[in-house]
Structure formats: C-alpha cells, structure tokens
C-alpha cells in the first residue's frame, strides 16, 4: 500500500469539456495500481510547479478515474489546462463516502447544485445500479444557467428511467430552456418521499446545502439521514496540519461527507 502522503504520477488519458470553465479528466497511473475510491471520496491532485488541491472522484471509465474540475484559481486552472498525455501528481483516496449501501429500503433524495453533481455522480449510479434495493428515488439538480449544467448525457439517461424522478432547474433561463426556473429547494415539494425513511445526499454551495437541509428537517427527515459534503481549503488531507479543522472535526479525515446533525453548527462558521 502507498504511504498516504506519497504523490504518484498519473497520465491524462481523456479530457471532456463539460462547460466553459469545467472539464472531466480521465487519469491512469504511469506505474503501479489504480487508486480504488468509494463514491464521495477525493484525491489530492497536483499540477507540477503550481500546487495541489482536493478533487472528488466523479466516475470510473475502464481503468481510468474521472475527476471533474472547475477552474476557479491558479491550481484548478492548471489542472483544467492539462491535455491528453500530460502527467499530473495524485495521492489518495481520502475522506468518507456517501455509504449508499447502508440504507436498503430507504427513499433516496439526491440534491446537487452546480459542480456539486460531480461528487454525487457515482452515488447516483450506485443507487440506480441497485435500484431494486431502494424505495422512491429522486434526483434534484440546480445550476445557475443552462450552459453551466454538467453531465448532460447522464442526466438524459437518468431522466429516461421510469423508476426515478429527475428534475432540473436553473436560476436564470435562456430562450431555449424549457425546464424549471428557480432555486433547487423549490423542486422539493414536486417530488414524493416518506420523510421517516428518507436518506438525503446533498452537495453544492454551502448556502444551498443549508437551505435544502433546513427544508428537509422541517418536513421530518432525520438530521442523521441528511448527508452533506463539506468544502474547506486543505493541505495535508490526513488530519495532521489542522488547515481544515473546525471545532472538533477535520473536514479531510472526518468528512468531507458528514451527517447534517454533526456538521450543522460548523456550517454557520465562515471560512477565513
Ligand atoms: C473534499 C473536496 C472535494 C472537492 N471536489 C471538487 C471537485 O470535484 N471539483 C472541483 O472543481 N472542485 C472541487 N473542490 C474544490 C477545489 O478543491 C477548489 O476549487 C480548489 O482548491 C481551488 O484552488 P485554486 O488554487 O484553483 O483556487 P484558489 O486560488 O484557492 O481560489 C481562487 C478563487 O476561487 C474561489 N474558490 C475557491 N474554491 C472555490 C470553490 N470550490 N467554488 C467557488 N469558488 C472557489 C476562492 O475563494 C478564490 O476567490 C473540492 C474541495 C474539497 C475540499
Ligand atoms: S488538511 Fe491537514 S488536517 Fe485536514
């Protein structure tokens, strides 16, 4: 097993442009075995000479791990600029996973905002691959505008299923948009679920996760059955440096996915 801080070389074997500022990279190891990740876990990806950032796994394709990256600063921009054949550093896997298999028989409500759909994609596929194990399944997706929606082909495939409800909304529509317009929270009353047996998986901007969680709590979903994926700046990713610490929690090793009951007070703390 590789030491947790050892960065290995990975080659970019595929690159798909999702939106103007977001790409999905497929990465395979230059040497040695592929990293095995669970849905919701993340790797630290290093662009040589620029820096290292945490990025969640967004899928598997053959032997390559997929990471979907939005360019927001120096490091994420350098990773998005990598092309087929380029080499990036990577170490991992880190963090907790969505633990979908812990909830046989549950209704699933999966809520994604923007790039937050990336850490949820494998969890959605896991639920759909074992659809017979679960009750009602609803996927609610929000984006700021239609051209910022990622994974269009996956969304179309999920929507084509008769056993799953998939609703998509945008904050600001274009003339071609025929779907819902408004916040993703406004989709919640449009789907049916039993709050007493519902598991919610939520990933997106913190304000959105708080809004969705608060609404679900009001409807009677248990705080221990609402899971959110937290984002904080990270350095070591193994609970040593304290960079991601809030109260008693290390986001890198106790999260990034937490039951809402454990993280609610931390979500009120602004990152400095
Ligand atoms: C566990 C975990 C999983 C993550 N998974 C993903 C993923 O799958 N895909 C992905 O694209 N990102 C993901 N991120 C976020 C990613 O790590 C950050 O976008 C990255 O660290 C930014 O670094 P940078 O050097 O490019 O930008 P910085 O120089 O750090 O930031 C540049 C500017 O962008 C702002 N910014 C930083 N992060 C974000 C953000 N997340 N959203 C909006 N603005 C931001 C900063 O406030 C700053 O103004 C994840 C973060 C964590 C903690
Ligand atoms: S990033 Fe170092 S303790 Fe979490």
Summarize this entry quickly.
The chain has 272 residues and is an alpha/beta fold. Helices cover 19% and strands 33% of the residues. It contains six helices and 15 strands.
Descriptors for this entry?
272 residues, 6 helices, globular, binds flavin-adenine dinucleotide, binds FE2/S2 (inorganic) cluster
Structural features, described:
The chain is of the alpha/beta class and 272 residues long. Helix content is 19%, strand content 33%. It is built from six helices and 15 strands. It has helices spanning 74-81, 117-129, 152-159, 206-219, 251-254, 260-263; strands spanning 8-19, 22-29, 42-47, 51-61, 64-70, 87-94, 107-113, 137-143, 165-170, 180-181, 198-203, 226-229, 245-246, 249-250, 257-259. A seven-stranded mixed beta sheet has the order 10-9-8-7-11-12-15, with helices on both faces. The model has no long low-confidence stretch (mean pLDDT 94). Bound molecules: flavin-adenine dinucleotide (FAD) and FE2/S2 (inorganic) cluster. Flavin-adenine dinucleotide is lined by residues 42, 51, 53-56, 68-70, 72-76, 95, 115, 118-119, 231-232, 234, 256.
Number of strands: 15
- What's the overall geometry? globular
Distance between the amino and carboxyl termini: 35 Å
Helical residues, percent:
10-25%
Helices and strands, with pairings:
Blueprint: E1 8-19, E2 22-29, E3 42-47, E4 51-61, E5 64-70, H1 74-81, E6 87-94, E7 107-113, H2 117-129, E8 137-143, H3 152-159, E9 165-170, E10 180-181, E11 198-203, H4 206-219, E12 226-229, E13 245-246, E14 249-250, H5 251-254, E15 257-259, H6 260-263
Parallel strand pairs: 7-8, 7-11, 8-9, 9-10, 11-12
Antiparallel strand pairs: 1-2, 1-6, 2-5, 3-4, 3-6, 4-5, 12-15, 13-14
The structure holds flavin-adenine dinucleotide and FE2/S2 (inorganic) cluster.
FE2/S2 (inorganic) cluster binds next to loops.
């Amino acid at each position: 097993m590789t030491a947790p801080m050892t960065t290995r070389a990975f080659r970019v074997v595929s690159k798909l442009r999702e939106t103007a500022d977001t790409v999905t990279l497929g990465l395979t190891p230059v040497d040695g075995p592929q990293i095995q990740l669970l849905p919701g876990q993340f790797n630290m990806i290093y662009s040589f000479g620029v820096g290292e950032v945490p990025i969640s796994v967004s899928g598997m394709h053959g032997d390559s791990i997929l990471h979907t990256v939005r360019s927001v600063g120096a490091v994420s921009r350098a990773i998005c600029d990598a092309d087929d054949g380029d080499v990036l550093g990577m170490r991992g896997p880190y963090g907790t996973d969505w633990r979908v298999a812990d909830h046989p028989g549950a209704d699933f409500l999966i809520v994604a905002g923007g790039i937050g759909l990336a850490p949820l994609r494998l969890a959605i596929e896991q639920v759909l691959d074992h659809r017979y194990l679960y009750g009602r399944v609803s996927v609610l997706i929000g984006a700021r505008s239609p051209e910022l929606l990622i994974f269009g082909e996956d969304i179309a495939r999920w929507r084509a299923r008769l056993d799953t409800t998939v609703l998509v909304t945008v904050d600001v529509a274009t003339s071609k948009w025929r779907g819902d317009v408004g916040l993703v929270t406004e989709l919640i009353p449009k789907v049916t679920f039993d709050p007493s047996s519902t598991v919610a998986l939520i990933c997106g901007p913190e304000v959105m996760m708080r809004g969705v969680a608060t609404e679900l709590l009001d409807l009677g979903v248990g705080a221990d059955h609402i899971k959110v994926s937290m984002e904080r700046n990270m350095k070591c990713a193994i609970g040593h440096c304290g960079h991601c610490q809030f109260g008693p929690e290390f986001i890198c090793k106790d999260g990034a996915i937490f039951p809402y009951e454990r993280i609610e007070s931390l979500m009120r703390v602004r990152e400095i």
